[in-house]
Amino acid sequence: MWAFTTLRDHAARSPGGVVRLVTIVQRQPSWVGRAAAGAALLVFTGVVLLLVVPAALAATVVFGVLALGAGAARSIRSALRLDASGRRNVRVVARR
Fold first, then answer.
1. What pLDDT score was predicted for residue 18?
2. d(CA 40, CA 67)
3. φ, ψ for residue 72, nearest 5 deg
């Protein structure tokens, strides 16, 4: 990120290169800008940890409970010998 040595070497050799070096150095973020960017990163990370991670865990739990419920319903249906539509004692008439 900081390339002062190569810029200084080029600035010493080329006419007008010193102006370019000063311009590039002035464009670098100050410690206040870096601190603000770091604070913004910490706030974003906090939001992700406080909102997204619990939501993903809750979704996983809900999916697991629903999957267990579907499995239990399927096993009860199979134990009671119900057909797929949930009816009993229904005769299928084959038409030709």
1. 54
2. 39
3. -65, -40
Query: Tokens standing for 51?
Result: 């909102």
Q: Are 65 and 57 in contact (CB under 8 A)?
A: no
pLDDT of 59 > 50? The answer is yes
Whether residue 21 contacts residue 7, with contact meaning beta carbons closer than 8 Å, is answered with: yes
Secondary structure (H, E, C), 6-25? HHHHHHHHCCCHHHHHHHHH
Structure tokens at 83: 């057909």
Going by pLDDT thresholds of 50, 70 and 90, the confidence category of residue 3 is very low
* pTM strictly above 0.70: no
Task: For the beta carbon of residue 51, count every other beta carbon within 10 angstroms.
Answer: 10
